[in-house]
Specification:
Layout lengths: L24 E7 L18 H8 L2 E3 L2 E2 L5 H10 L3 H4 L15 H7 L3 E7 L11 E5 L9 E4 L2 E4 L4 H15 L6 E6 L37 H5 L23 H21 L3 H36 L6 E7 L18 H4 L3 E4 L8 E3 L3 E2 L3 H9 L13 H4 L10 E6 L11 E6 L2 E6 L5 E6 L17 H17 L9
Parallel strand pairs: 1-8, 1-9, 2-11, 3-12, 4-5, 4-8
Antiparallel strand pairs: 2-10, 5-6, 6-7, 9-10, 13-14, 14-15, 15-16
Helix pairs in contact: 1-8, 4-10, 5-8
């Protein structure tokens, strides 16, 4: 044991918050790949998100919100079912979601809630458990998207964030009287290829985005997994990622705006003939500005919806949640994308507003998971949480009352290898201070990080004798968590 520090505390319990008779509405807003360090309420050094900050200012911001499998479809299945990937069956993006299984929207609907899903679905089967659904096929596209509304494909002209927001507002305005609602409103943005909307094409043109300290990480302190991935800004990004080619299916008006925004910048790049670190720095700036431009549209969208709740007199009795399906690398370690259990992709933003119970401007540092979301919604709706759900309601935490038996560690498992980006399979445990990861399948390597002394996770200390007791305790905890969550998949501990 490192002197003066404890690795673990109490154990995970289930529990429920105090019941309220009036059932609140639930508005769950989720983006795709929005890193918390690109939100100003989380201290972003690269952008401002005033409307997302409204949720945090009016409610609670969680500083240790994590996903259980950092990739799009599995995260969505975990949220719907309250079960780990190996239990709900969706371990990676290639698998189809079994829509016949129990989900929290089905339970809310049975309890009298009006339920809807609008936006990105990405689960390969039609939504179930919803009174209304209108989804993007697959990943969807940014410009002139197709949506599938209750099974009917529809073509649209415009920008996807704006179109989905219009649909969400139309549904809210047309909902049935006398029923509480649960709306899952899922944006495509800011997913790759980070194509900004017409309004924000030139935002940040006159700004130099600060570089992360690890942009030129050489992975010397890590094992094969970090070295053999294929998600670097330097080598992996395509011409479309970098806007050196235009997206398809633009209208003439959209194409003219796009050419006016990117044409001069691309010409200047060609003339500069950059190489080496200068080229990486140029790619980083192009990537980050486009990513942040997409977030600007999301922030505007959230503002429109919050304004409607205020105008309609719904704000006081509506729980508003904003999160992302996972985190993302913003040049950290020289990367984009997610998948690894390292901090930037493990950590998700999570802000929750509910004026009747949550103190404005409050902050919570407990370990919470996307596994907990469904249980929380059921708790607030007065619906019993089924025993086979594996998370725990956050309601007491939102009230500022952390139970003595709240989790002090979390379990993670990533499966999608071999596949795009070549991130090796791994599972692990994270506590408030330490993280132990086991990479398996084509390798057998362990990594340990002391997040207090090494927050950027640059040096694997698994073999350092000073951490021998930490390794022993975390290995035991990892074994316990795998048993608790009934995970026998992957290599043994």
């Amino acid at each position: 044991m490192v002197a003066g520090f404890s690795v673990l505390g109490g154990r995970i319990g289930r529990g429920r918050g105090s019941g309220a008779k009036e059932r609140p509405n639930i508005l769950f807003i989720m983006t795709d790949d929005h890193a918390s360090h690109a939100m100003s309420c989380y201290g972003s050094q690269v952008n401002k998100t005033p409307n997302l900050d409204r949720i945090a200012a009016g409610g609670m911001r969680f500083t240790n919100s994590f996903c259980t499998n950092s990739i799009c479809a599995p995260c969505r299945a975990v949220i719907l079912t309250g079960k780990y990937s190996h239990i709900n069956g969706l371990i990676d993006n290639a698998v189809k979601f079994d829509g016949s299984q129990q989900t929290f929207p089905k339970l809310l609907r049975q309890a009298g809630y009006e339920t809807a899903i609008i936006g990105k679905w990405h689960l390969k089967t039609d939504p179930t458990g919803f009174d209304y659904w209108n989804i993007l096929p697959g990943q969807g596209v940014y410009y002139n998207p197709v949506t599938i509304e209750m099974g009917q494909r529809k073509n649209h002209e415009g920008y996807v964030t704006d179109i989905l927001t219009d649909y969400a507002l139309d549904w809210l305005k047309g909902r049935k009287d006398g029923k509480p609602f649960c709306l899952m409103f899922h944006h495509k943005a800011p997913h790759r290829e980070w194509e900004p909307g017409p309004k924000y094409l030139t935002l940040y043109d006159d700004v130099q985005i600060p570089e992360p300290a690890t942009l030129f990480d050489d992975y010397v302190g890590r094992g094969r997994a970090a070295k053999e991935q294929d998600m670097t800004i330097a080598k992996t990004m395509t011409k479309r990622d970098l806007k050196l080619v235009t997206p398809g299916k633009l209208t003439p008006e959209q194409q003219a705006k796009w050419d006016a925004a990117y044409g001069p910048k691309n010409e200047a790049f060609e003339q500069a003939n950059l190489q080496g670190k200068d080229l990486v720095r140029w790619k980083y700036q192009r990537y980050m500005k486009d990513y942040l431009r997409c977030i600007a549209s999301v922030d505007e969208s959230v503002g429109r919806v919050l304004d409607y709740l205020d105008q309609a007199g719904l704000a006081d009795n509506t729980i508003v949640i904003y999160t992302s399906d996972q985190g993302f690398y913003l040049g950290d370690h020289g990367w984009f994308d997610k998948r690894f259990m390292y901090e930037e992709s493990l950590r998700m933003p999570l802000v929750v507003r509910y004026p009747k119970e949550i103190k404005a401007g409050s902050v919570n540092d407990d370990i919470v998971l996307n596994l907990d979301f469904g249980e929380t919604f059921l708790d607030y709706a007065g619906v019993s949480v089924p025993a086979d759900m594996q998370g725990r309601s956050l309601r007491l935490l939102l009230q500022g009352r952390t139970p003595s038996d709240w989790r002090t560690s979390m379990y993670y498992h990533y499966y999608e290898y071999p596949a795009v980006h070549s991130v090796k399979r791994h599972y692990g445990v994270r506590t408030q201070r330490y993280k132990l990861i086991h990479f398996y399948n084509d390798i057998d390597e362990w990594e340990l990080y002391d997040l207090k002394t090494d927050p950027d996770e640059m040096q694997n200390v698994y073999s350092d004798p000073q951490y021998a007791d930490v390794v022993k305790e975390l290995t035991a905890e990892l074994t316990r968590l795998r048993a608790q969550y009934k995970d026998t998949t992957g290599a043994p501990v």
